[in-house]
Amino acid sequence: MLILLASAALSGLSPAGAGCPGGAEMRSGPPRSTNLPRPRDPTIAVQEELDAARRAGTVEAYDLFLARHGDHALAETARRERARIARVLED
After folding, report:
1. φ and ψ at 83, to 5 degrees?
2. Which residues have a Cβ under 8 Å from the Cβ of 64 and sit 6 or more positions away?
3. Which of 8, 54, 74, 84 has a CA between 20 and 30 Å from the CA of residue 44?
4. What is the full per-residue pLDDT of the chain (91 aa) written as tens digits?
5. Farthest CA pair distance, the chain
6. Where are the domains of the chain?
7. What is the pTM of this model?
8. Interacting residues of 69 by C-beta distance below 8 A, sequence separation 6+
9. Secondary structure of the chain as H, E, C letters
10. Alpha-carbon distance 74 to 43, whole Å?
11. What is the C-alpha to C-alpha distance for residues 76 and 90, in angstroms, rounded to an integer?
12. C-beta separation of 72 from 46 below 8 A
């Protein structure tokens, strides 16, 4: 460590974190982008998952949806549709 510090001092470089506010380490690599896409609307994602359960048309698909989104506004719709499919399978 001492050799590294001495080497950095001789070359005119400061060791990582030295002289940086708060001792933060220097980053290497490309800078982070500030033009990131906006996050997806979670309501749309949940609707798409319900649509996928409808396409599958199985009790298991609805169970998965309800396990993941049981407290979402669409959960009651999913419960009704699941119950309808379960009744058809019982007959």
Report:
1. -65, -40
2. 53
3. 84
4. 545 555 555 555 555 555 555 555 666 777 777 888 888 899 999 999 999 999 999 999 999 999 999 999 999 999 999 999 999 999 8
5. 85
6. 40-91
7. 0.59
8. 46, 49, 50, 75, 78
9. CHHHHHHHHHHCCCCCCCCCHHHCCCCCCCCCCCCCCCCCCHHHHHHHHHHHHHHHCCHHHHHHHHHHHCCCCCHHHHHHHHHHHHHHHHC
10. 9
11. 21
12. yes
Angle, helices 42-56 vs 59-69, to 10°: value is: 160
